[in-house]
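> Could you send the 50S ribosomal protein L44e prediction when you get a chance?

Sure thing. Input:
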Amino acid sequence: MCDKRPFDTRQAASEVIYYLKRSSSRDKIPRRTYFCRYCSAWHLTSETKGEYRARRKWQKGRDKPSRTMRDRRK
Ligand SMILES: [Zn+2]
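Output:
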């Protein structure tokens, strides 16, 4: 689970983004929604798709060494 606010549907999350875009004066307002498999709910993120892809790529790269290390222990 994460400490982000969960939404039941993508539409509910999108409506909050729409509202924040109009009313919030913060620099970083959520730009898009994504489904969180840990919470089984939708979250908001201010990350762009490009930033998200870069992070995913980086995490995939991190996963590999740990798997190799586990194999070596056998
Ligand atoms: Zn979550």
